[in-house]
Design goal:
Layout lengths: L3 H9 L6 H12 L5 H14 L3 H12 L16 E5 L7 H11 L4 E4 L10 H5 L11 H10 L2 E4 L7 H12 L6 H13 L5 E8 L8 H17 L4 E7 L7 E2 L1 H15 L2 H17 L6 H13 L2 H12 L4 H8 L14 E6 L4 E6 L1 H13 L13 E4 L6 E2 L4 E7 L6 H9 L1 E4 L10 E5 L6
Parallel strand pairs: 1-4, 2-3, 4-5
Antiparallel strand pairs: 5-13, 6-9, 7-11, 8-10, 8-12, 9-11
Helix pairs in contact: 1-3, 2-4, 2-8, 3-8, 4-9, 4-10, 5-12, 5-13, 5-14, 8-9, 9-10, 12-13, 14-15
Amino acid sequence: MTSIPDLIKKKRDGGALSDEEIKTFVHAVTNRTIEECQTGAMLMAIWQKGMVQEEVETLTRAMMSSGEVMSWPKEWAGLVVDKHSTGGVGDKVSLVLAPALAACGFKVPMISGRGLAHTGGTLDKLESIPGFKVHQSAAQILEILRSVGCCIVGQTEKLVPADRVLYALRDMTSTVDSLPLIAGSIVSKKGAESLSALVLDVKFGRAALYKDLQSAKELAQLLVRVGNGLGVPTAAILSRMDATIGGCVGNSLEVIESLETLKGNGPDDLMELVTTLGSLLLKMTGSVSDLSEGRRRISEAVIGGAALSKFQAMMEAQGVANETARSLCSAHTDYHSVLRKSEHQMELKTPADGFVVDVGGLTLAEVLHKLGAGRSKARGPVNHSVGAELLVSLGQRVRKGESWLRLHYEDPAPSPDQIHGLQSALTLGTRENTQTRTLVEEVLLPSDTV
């Protein structure tokens, strides 16, 4: 058998690793029979020399098989679906899409993550709801899917253990942005869910990991190829991430906006993402003949209230008290009677007359992160009540001195520099400067990357 140093040398020198060699490496990582420095050396070799398609597929399959692979009842064939987003500001799509898909008859075992750096985590948002338990065993996930149709949970200890090791070391070795390693991490976890279809929201723009469309498209194409190579029908959208998604940023505020969306009062940009992603899943599973019919069905599930009922049932199934869940889902609830409100609020004023040309999502998120809404370390604390509400929309005409943002914060108060940072997120201009455009730039179907 080839030794680990030989495998590292082969990849360092630009060679393509065989299936057996990749399996040997992943097995050693999983069973911790490899030195951490050797794992780091291999990650850097992959980062420098890359991997061909066959290598990425083998790496992903080996990672997927390193732990428990979920199995579902035979009658669920063609119904188990999920989505993944590369992360954004105000990205609350999962909280609306999962129950909407369940309302359409699907099973959604959505395994989500926590926020890190400026991007918010779905699990952190849900944990702002008193009693919500994101940690569920495989048996509990099965039961929730059977009774409700959707759950949103954290990664179980037995699911893709190889990724747990590699993910942590990628951060420490500055290999986070390696396309083969990104693809292996994302698709292995989704593959272990034994999905009938997967859709990916790959974001580009000033508030995204990838700033330009072309580099995001390169990742999206690889993810779609690898997912389909593993036998999971996979599609992707390329969506713009410059401003915020919706009008709220911050954990509990995003839960409120998600609930308002499920009550039929959602912002257009959020609904665009929900219906586009949902329609792709419906199309790939053969539930609809075209994407427009899929968008209509997802929209009806949200606007008609069926998705709200599923969200309420999911909350109760994941530990939220019945009375709490009912209160949050009632028509005229006081959300802050359930969700903790920050100690202080402050409204920022527009500096001049004009039209809202841009609201920088990254700038907002970075300041909110420093005020406690996000974390800098994987297990760090998060203040669920810190956040911001946009009081204006793109293209809107404003007068000097109007409120454009409501900041929710705790002691200590934001510094003058932080207030200045928030104010710098707002760009005013003339009507000619304003342009409203859809978020979804491109759709990649499974056949587009063959």
